[in-house]
Amino acid sequence: MGRKIYDVIVVGAGHAGCEAALAAARMGCKTLILTMNLDLIAQMPCNPSIGGPAKGTLVREIDALGGEMAQNIDKTFIQIRMLNVSKGPAVQALRAQADKRLYSLAMKHTLEHTPNLDIKQTIVEEILAEEGRVKGVMTNAGMPYYGHAVVVTTGTFLDGKIITGETVYPAGRAGEFPAKGLSSSLRRLGLTMGRLNTDTPPRVDARTIDFSKTIPQLGSPTPLYFSFQPPASELIFPEPNPIYPVPQETPWRRQLPCYLVHTNRETHRIIRANLHRAPLVTGFVEGTSPRYCPSIEEKIVRFPDRDSHQFFLEPEGFATMEVYVQGAFTSLPEDVQLAMLRSVPALREVEIMRAGYAVEYDYVPPDQIYSSLETKSIEGLFLAGQINGTSGYEEAAAQGIMAGINAGRKVRGERPIVLGRDQAYIGVLIDDLVTKEINEPYRMMTSRAEYRLLLRQDNADLRLTPIGYEVGLVGRERYDAVERKRRAIERELARLGETWITPSEEFSQRMIELGLAPLNKGINALQFLRRPEIAYEAIQALIPSPNSLNSEVIEQVNIEAKYAGYIERQSREVERAKRLEERAIPSGFDYDAVHGICNEAREKLIRFRPQTLGQASRLSGVNPTDVSILLLHLEKDRRVKALEP
After folding, report:
1. Average pLDDT value over all residues in the chain
2. Which of 91, 339, 464, 582 is the most buried if burial means most Cβ atoms within 10 Å?
3. What domains are there in the chain, each with its CATH number?
4. Helices (DSSP H) in 343-424: which residue ranges?
């Protein structure tokens, strides 16, 4: 019997690995996903939640492309909320608390029922490659698996170690083996490795919390979903533990509250008195920790004048007693963690079920990958997730779906899909990875997207579903629905732009009934809608549309009208930037032959090997003059080649 050769092999079944494997398999590629533990697929080792500012937009973009994360959290959340509702649409974000175990089980079920996808439990020790081309992987049991493309999504497992106070032991996550051999294998293939760390908070026993001294944080009373096509129903949840007060029976979904508490001066005194035992502060931890998600001990050092910090008590599921202490990220010894928590009034009698810890691990600095997430040195080898220096489930899943898409297209001899910074937060994320120095865990934030008013969570389907359809992850029915929505929005905006409102006694009376001041003179309906106090409901009451419009169309019409000036300005900026983005730099371009650019720019260009002039312009150390000189040389080379016979 001949050996089985896969199109795509995915190493790791975390959030990146699941999206990569599903994307490749759904595109028709024969796919294999390998994981250390089949019971921990799509595990949530840190916070049991999905979404938040910028991250929520990533999830909706994954969904628009045909990915799974949004569907999975919609089936398994115990609470969902819309954040930043008082702010503009560019920063509004969904955030959902997951039932941690059900989330994992639901994703495992999806993998198991996906055609073209094999799932196996094993430990990958080596990446097999010949003459700069990937060939497959080798397990610790000496079993080879061969494939035309390999996607590595190892999370925090590469030579990982757990640190709690003075206690250190090898692990990828608490209670799980690290991947030591694979880290060495990547080095042998010529990849440079770096070291990062992240930390987790303690999990406490709900039975030992005084909920009367907390502030409940309730879920949305109205339906909210991440997916543009929500699942028909959630999974069958067990009854909530009676220990949790304030049960929330919303009309549309059973939800479970989270609870807010605050640290105090005594909490901070305990932490300060034990800083000499804090590995993240003393420098005992080798890797760089995330600046935007600091440990509680780092917060105390950084913000000495703060008297209080927030802790959110987040249940990890309906049926479990474990509660995640969001905000208490720490690597302090367990005795200090307990004293710290018990200084908070609601936690006076609290018991820790799992202590917080830091995890330190190897990663591959992403200047060694292309925007397709394929490595520059080994053809057919793709990297996605925390191995590229990112943090967060959403960032991992976003890279996973793109790596899966591009691995599949690589096997089929097709050009990779690379999303631009003007197309998606996913595009911003990957472009940042391949053009910036990543020396701390990268976290997606709205401030990183210069075109964030164009890249809203509400229009992700309009932006990306056509691409999902093109690559084969979105069906024709869904694609047609999005295009009907697009036409309905355009039709209604055009109608309003062509409609003139003329004041009359009857019209003025209807405005008064709506609580609006009567008009003194005629006005274009679109201009009328742009007024801050005018909602689309008023337009419907005064000059109703002849067409039936659903809530999603109305939302887009309202946003497009009210933010038209800003949207047009950002659209013009995108058009100006496209001239650089569309100018490709040949892969073997000789930067040493370019005279006039500064030495730092030459060093960065040689190291990062940007694929376009736009990418080159975003490298630190490359200034506008360097870009202009580079453009002249590219143009000169183009003219010379055009004259060649």
Report:
1. 92
2. 464
3. 203-234+242-359 (2.40.30.260), 476-570 (1.10.10.1800), 583-643 (1.10.150.570)
4. 393-411
